[in-house]
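Hey, I was hoping to borrow your eyes for a little while. I've dropped the whole record in just underneath, so have a look:

——
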Amino acid sequence: MTTTAVRPDQTGLLNSLGQPHAAEGRWRTQLARWIRPTVAAAWMNVLIAAVAAVAVTAQGYLPHRSWPASDEWGIGALKLFVLWCVSFLPGWLYVRFLGLRAAALWSEYVLNLHRLGWDHAGHLPAPPRRSEYYARWLAEQPGGLGTSLDSAGRGSDNIYRQKFDAYYGRQVADASIGDRDFRIKVETLFPVFLTTVVLAVGWVGILWDTSFLTTTPDAFGMLKYAFLGAYSFILGMLVRRFYQGDLRPSAYAAAVLRIITVLIMIAALHAALFAHLPATVARGEVAVAFLIGIFPLAGLEALRRLASSTLKEQLPQVDPEYPLNQIDGLNIWYETRLAEEGVEDMQNLATMNLVDVILHTRVPVGRLIDWVDQAFLLIHLEPVSRQDVHAARQASSDMPSCPSAGPEMRVTLRRMGIRTATDLLAVFSRAVSGGRTPADREFVYQRCPIEEDRLRLLVEVLLHEQGLVPVWNWRSNGSPSTRS
């Protein structure tokens, strides 16, 4: 009995021929899981068309029809065009973003890690060869270049590389710019498709009957204004994240959540406040509904105050003692983005995982470091509101001789030019004020309008904050902190 040798490629061919159904099943599975961005855009058009078709068909079965009749097809066509534009644009931003991809972000991400001094240089991914950090990284490599570097010098078993791949995806990060065969998983696009459908349904409700724009709107009209406010915020947020390279499917899930939350909130506020008011007074609800679409926390605070008389102390506070809006340069867009990452107040900002926030939010690192630096100083002072600080600033044009209250302390530090924790340490700490004699440092303490013992205690506490080490490293351009 003789046997015929079969080459490995022939074995694979025979196996595929012997199991046609299995090969076809695997091919269909891969086709179902991965689609190209152009196909995703086509599917969004199909979803919008389906919503529009249902709306146009349903107008013949409703007793109150406001969609244009057959002799008004010009207005109807215009409404359909507006429906397509406002529903397709948010999803198209993500499809366009996929064409840009995240491959160019890797070098920037690695350079930020080295400048922060987040870990020993040898434990971080390899920086670009022409950077100032490459020699230090190479010197700390055990046995030369190591054993697990890919063609781009990125260690596949490195935890920082794994974080990058987990968020952006290995295929997205490694794809070359201009590669038209790039594909994306269908499950990744589900939030984008869902947002497209929700926006299309919402705009159908608005375009169906536009009389609410010229008359005193009813409860359904208030929901329309709330949807318009939420849509304006969502579109602005998506555009900003598109240009910052931070557009992810989670942004679309947050958009759907915002729309649902705002609509429910407006329904509750309308029933509690505006349902029984005169028409002239109730018109103010239009502005309220639109603004709550942009600032949902304002509506939540209004509901909390309405219920406070009944629930009293059992109702938790909505605003934290150290809100993010007291930090210089942190506006509503960045505040919303940080909240998505679980950073809701200054304490969260000072204790967050800086690497994850840098990777996920795409906030300029220098700006993020400055916010962290401010947060470390403010959380060690008494919690005050912006109104209290403004009142303290207006009460005295000169520095108080010995400020004792929280607002006065903040005003005094700001008038001295101190706005961050490292500013305070650079002026008053012996560990970081090299070049000054002990007598010079004592003179600075004595001339400060703040109580000396209180100031020394604040400096000592900040010196032992380990979270400030990356801040010092960043400000020294990557040189390890030498503070005692």
In short: The first strand starts at residue 34 and ends at 35. Strands lie at 34-35, 184-185. The CA atoms of residues 253 and 445 lie 52 Å apart.
